């Protein structure tokens, strides 16, 4: 009995696939993801060889998705969306700053334009609690 060796797709190759599918040409796809067009062509060829079928019909007008390419498209877009979401979590772009910030100032600064800056900060970051302490005592930050 012959068995076909199972090979999974390379996630990076889905990025190349999407670039070509969206632009219709290797050069425009390469430009859209800032890689050399020969690199994109090579990666696409490797991807097609891995799955054992063409993803694009090639013509003088460009590249058009085959039925397999059409079927792969929504899956590739979901992988792209998940990778984008994961990247945002990792770099903290989705995180809204929160917590408490303790600020100690001398009484003389209580009636200055600095208070407008604190109000603007509070509006910009509603999940941050500003704990304002006005005193003329000298504080030791190492002892909190």
What does this structure look like?
The chain is an alpha+beta fold and 144 residues long. Helices cover 50% and strands 15% of the residues. Strand 3, helix 5 and strand 4 (128-134) form a beta-alpha-beta unit. The model has no long low-confidence stretch (mean pLDDT 87).
Annotation keywords:
two-stranded parallel sheet; alpha+beta; 144 residues; two-stranded antiparallel sheet; 50% helix; single chain
What string gives the helices and strands in order? HHHEEHEHE
Strand order of the largest sheet: 1-2
What multimeric state do the chains show? single chain
Strand content: 15-25%
Radius of gyration: 27 Å
Percent helix among the residues?
40-55%
Distance between the termini: 74 Å
User: DSSP helix count?
Assistant: 5
Question: Structural class, from secondary structure content?
Answer: alpha+beta
Number of strands: 4
Mean pLDDT, rounded to whole units?
87
Characterize this entry briefly.
By secondary structure, the chain is α+β, with helices and mostly antiparallel strands.
Topology readout:
Blueprint lengths: L10 H13 L2 H8 L3 H15 L4 E4 L2 E4 L1 H25 L7 E7 L8 H11 L3 E7 L10
Parallel strand pairs: 3-4
Antiparallel strand pairs: 1-2
Helix pairs in contact: 1-2, 1-4, 2-3
